[in-house]
Design a protein that fits this description.
Length: 284
């Protein structure tokens, strides 16, 4: 089990962030923008799309990351309709997770341009297909190609990690190949803090080794249990108060609460996570 002591160990990074964090807190005291990855409430959106969005707005969420793209539509709606539904409630879709084949790439990017997102994120490669150094290098080449196409239309392309990317390959890991073989101006990374911790990785080591590459974060927490299960943000062992102090060197611009599976009602779960993260961000 990863410990708090080992999780946060890079004093140089903390010092580098010290000038940033007071400014972050000052902004937070005026208005705190907190995001949600909509995968957490996927079933609720199917049952009552507009009603679920209203509940998220009432909780306080302002940033959203979509997870419902398919064949040019989002949650079964044209991009403009989905965008209007969100913006009419005073929220904004910042990012979208989407997978697509090479022959569908142009259509997918065009749909995201119409949606008006800042980021299009590839949520992960199939695990069985990426186990060797060459697999990761080939994957990086594909990420570069998609990133170049997104860059031409003003969208930043990103890659979201799980735990399998941290497989050891000699003295390095698969994730390092993705970072080293992708062009920073073409590909950013969405750091899923939970999956990094699940793999036994201290995110601070990557924030220090590859500064500025992690523009997006998934904020999710881990139980203090043998199975390292998911739990609401602020109720687990991941020290987010310390991690947010390093958001500047990491390059983080937006973050999204996410919980893949909830033991309670997902709306109740995301409200607990929201309130706990709000307290962390505004703590003096």
């Amino acid at each position: 089990m990863i410990s708090r002591r080992n999780f946060i160990k890079t004093t140089a990074l903390t010092a580098a962030a010290s000038a940033f964090f007071p400014r972050f807190l000052q902004a937070a005291q005026k208005k705190v923008d907190i995001g949600l990855q909509l995968y957490t409430v996927r079933d609720q959106l199917k049952e009552d799309f507009t009603g679920t969005l209203r509940k998220l707005k009432k909780i306080g969420y302002t940033w959203l990351e979509a997870a419902g793209y398919s064949d040019g539509q989002f949650y079964g709606m044209p991009p403009a309709q989905f965008r209007k539904a969100v913006e009419d409630l005073g929220m904004k879709v910042i990012s979208s997770h989407a997978t697509f084949s090479a022959d569908k790439q142009k259509e997918a990017i065009a749909a995201h341009v119409e949606l008006g997102v800042k980021y299009l994120v590839y949520p992960g490669f199939p695990i069985p297909e990426h186990k060797t150094k060459d697999d990761f290098i080939k994957a990086a080449a594909r990420l570069n190609a998609i990133g170049a196409a997104c860059s031409k239309v003003g969208i930043t392309f990103g890659y979201h990690n799980h735990d399998f990317e941290f497989i050891e390959m000699g003295d390095t890991r698969g994730y390092d190949f993705l970072l080293n073989y992708t062009e920073p101006e073409m590909v950013c990374f969405e750091s899923d803090i939970y999956w990094m911790a699940y793999a036994g990785i201290d995110p601070m080591t990557y924030f220090g080794k590859y500064p500025g590459r992690f523009e997006l974060w998934h904020v999710k927490d881990m139980k203090d249990s043998p199975d390292k299960g998911l739990t609401e943000v602020g109720t687990g062992i991941i020290p987010y108060a310390e991690l947010f102090k390093s958001s500047d060197p990491a390059g983080m611009k937006y973050f999204f609460i996410e919980q893949d599976d909830c033991e309670m009602d997902p709306i109740e779960s995301v409200e607990i996570s929201y309130q706990n993260l709000l307290a962390i961000l505004t703590e003096k």
